Sequence to fold (361 residues):
Amino acid sequence: MLYTNNLYNSGEITAKGMNAGEGTSPGGSSGGGSINIFANIIREKGVIDADGGKSTNKNMGKGGNGSVTINELNPYLNYPEKEINIEKNTYYKIEASKFAYVNQNGIQTPIVNLGTLKYESLDTNTAIIDNTGKITGINVGTAKIKITDITNGISTYIYINVYNGSKVDVKEGKNFTIALKENGTVWSYGINDKGQLGNGDSNNQNEPTEVKGIKDIKQISAGYSHSLAISRTGEVYSWGAGEKGQLGNGDIVNSNSPIQITGLTNIKKVETYKNTSLALDSNGYVYAWGEGYSSLPMKIIFSEKVTDISGNLLLTNEGKIYNLTDLTKPVRDFKDISKISCGEEHFVALSPDRNDIIMGS
Fold:
C-alpha cells in the first residue's frame, strides 16, 4: 500500500514476482504483487506494472501478473446547516458562500473548487426551492433538498422541516411524558415525585395537564426527572429534579414549576441527557450544566462549530459526530452526517446522500 501527497513518477512502479528457482525440482515463478496508490495529485502516471516473475526452466511457467490500482477518494460537499426549520409560507435563503468541500481523510486525490450549484426539492408538496437557493415552506412536513455542484458532479442534502406555529413534539422522561402542542403550550403526565410535570404540585397525573407559567414554546426536552423548554423569543425554562444542578439556576433543589434560566441568549435548541442539560446557540456554541458540570450553564470549550446536539453527542458543521466525554476525536469514522438522535446508551445517525441509518453505542 502506497500513500503519497504527490505522485510525480514518469518511469516505472513495479512489483515483479521472483523468477523461478533452478535445481532438480525448481519452484515456480511467483506472481506479481498488487499496488494500491492513494495520492492527492497525480502528475504523471508513467508506466505502472506488476509483472509476474519469469521462468528460466522450460518446465516451469511464468508467474501471474499482479495489478496496480490508483484510487481517487473525493471530498464531500458540505453546507453547515444540516436541518432547517421554517414556518409555512415563509422562506429560507441558502447562502452559496457557505458551501465548502471537506477532505474526508487527508489523502483524497482531487483538489476540488466549488462550481455551479443546482438546487432541487425532493418533496415539492412540502417545500420548493428556486434556482437562487430560496426555499419556501408550502405544507407542514419534512422535505429533502438536494444541492448538486454540476461542475464536479458532487451532491449534498439538507432537511427542511415546515411547521405551522410550534412544531408538535412529544418527549419521554424516565417515568413521565411532556408534549408540545401547535399553539405553543406544553402538557405533561406521569410520575411527579420531583415536580417533573411542572404543574405546581407533586401529584402524579394519568392525563395530560398543562404546564403553567410558560407560553409560545417552540422546543422541549425531557431528561431522567427534569425538563427544559425554549420559547420562540429565546427564553429557556427548566423544572423538575434539581439535585444535580440540572435546572441551571445555581441551586440543587427541585422545582415543581418552570423557572427561567438566566445568562443564556440566542439559544436555538435545548437538550437533556439523564441528569445533564445542554443548550446550543445560533453561533454554534454549546453550554452544559447538571451532573458532571456546575449548577449554572458553562460554555463547552470546543474548536468545532456545532449544528446539533442530541443526548451527549454533538454534530459539527462538517457532519462529524463528537461525544462530550472526548472532544479530541470524532466518534468512529462517520462523515457527512445530517441528523443524530441519541438514546440512553445508543444513537442513530443519518447520512442523507445514501439514506443510510447508522447505529452506534
In short: The first strand starts at residue 2 and ends at 7. The mean pLDDT is 83.
